[in-house]
Specification:
By secondary structure, the chain is of the alpha+beta class. It has a domain of 131 residues: Protein of unknown function (DUF541), domain 2 (Alpha-Beta Plaits). The chain is built from four helices and eight strands; from the N terminus they run H-E-E-H-E-E-H-E-H-E-E-E.
Length: 241
């Protein structure tokens, strides 16, 4: 009986040893081998596009009346945009909604419908960025109390050349870090075996909500400022003896 117990214990120890050995094994072709570093490249640019989120909101007793008011106001807003140099292709509907407007009747304990609200929002791409302030003023005047201006953001129409510059800086940054690590470790840096990239494209946004009840000062001051485009890379270098 004792022999059987000894044999069983021996088998358990062998299996445990095999398991531990498997956990400690690293294959020679593992992707985790080498020197892994990250690099970052940044480029500061001046925006050349202003994206304006705007529209109209009308409320009336009937849907038809609210729609009519909203449609007339939106026509005036669109005309104000195009008259100030915004092309029709750069105006796009983003949101349209018709909803009931209700009040709570405390006597009956029920909600009663008191009217309907129509909301129509568009985005307008302003390519002459220095005209953004005057365009906002024109839109507010055209739409009157129906006007809703939610947001103004800034971007770059063609960021490609800036990203090329940022990418060069990111790869150079990664290479410099890899060479330093290799020197500190007493090895030589080999060729890259893995490269990945992340792009950060910030859009500077300014809340300029205008709901029609408060007059917009004229002219509206607008400053686009600057944007910082960032590319990050992760690179794995082979190790040479």
């Amino acid at each position: 009986m004792k022999k059987y117990w000894l044999a069983a214990i021996g088998l358990v120890l062998v299996l445990a040893a095999v398991s531990l050995s498997g956990c400690a094994t690293i294959e020679s072709n593992s992707q985790q081998e080498g020197i892994w570093v990250s690099g970052e490249g940044k480029v500061t640019v001046t925006p050349d596009i202003a994206n304006l989120s705007l529209g109209v909101e009308a409320q009336a007793v009937t849907v038809a009346e609210a729609q009519s008011q909203a449609a007339e106001a939106m026509d005036r807003v669109i005309n104000a945009l195009t008259d100030n140099g915004v092309e029709e292709k750069d105006i796009q509907t983003q949101y349209f909604n018709i909803e009931q407007v209700t009040n709570w009747d405390k006597d009956t304990g029920e909600e009663i419908i008191v009217g309907y609200r129509v909301t129509n929002m568009v985005t307008a791409k302003i390519r002459e960025i220095d005209k953004a302030g005057s365009i906002i003023d024109a839109v507010a005047a055209a739409g009157g109390d129906y006007t809703r201006i939610n947001n103004l953001s800034f971007s770059v129409d063609d960021p490609s050349p800036y990203y090329e510059e940022a990418r060069q800086k990111a790869v150079a940054d990664a290479r410099a870090k890899g060479e330093q690590l290799a020197e500190l470790a007493g090895v030589r840096l080999g060729k890259p075996t893995y490269i990945s990239e992340w792009i950060s494209y910030p859009v500077y946004s300014r809340e300029i909500y205008y709901g029609g009840a408060v007059p917009v000062p004229a002219p509206t001051p607008i400053s686009p400022g600057e944007l910082e485009l960032t590319i990050s890379v992760q690179v794995a270098y082979a190790i040479l003896d």
